[in-house]
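#structure-requests
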Amino acid sequence: MVTDAEIREALQQWAERFGPRPTILAKVVAVDELNYTCDLQDDDGTQFYGIRLRPVLDGNEAVTQFPSIGTWAIAVRIESDEDWMLLTAGQIDKIRVSIGAATFQITNQGFLLQNGAAEMWQAFSLLFQALEKIVVLQGTNIDYVKLEQSKQTFKTLLNGT
């Protein structure tokens, strides 16, 4: 007598032979940040091109992960056509979140906080420039060493140039 587990296994093997794969576990071999795609290659050497980094192509971004080349990633099929999207990756080089005009981006270089043309680092940089010019006639002047340390810390955190 055939068990339920054997029937499920036989159905799964049949589906894999005649139906499309619903997911891919493969290594990232290329990333195209301009077109929001990546290419994957599985253990058998099969290459999958143009894997979407964003599932919806409507001109909006929301959340985008940029995977590291050489890392393992999982992609899922979008509905029943040949389009695939990146679900997750073992390591990413960048993640960007956009809501309206606001953008928050993280890379190994630091954070980017932006709303329209205004960037957080630019605002802090202007503040530091103004503070450096303060001269106190009576009392204690600004501790310029600590001010410079603070400036460098913000520059590092906020990917300032």
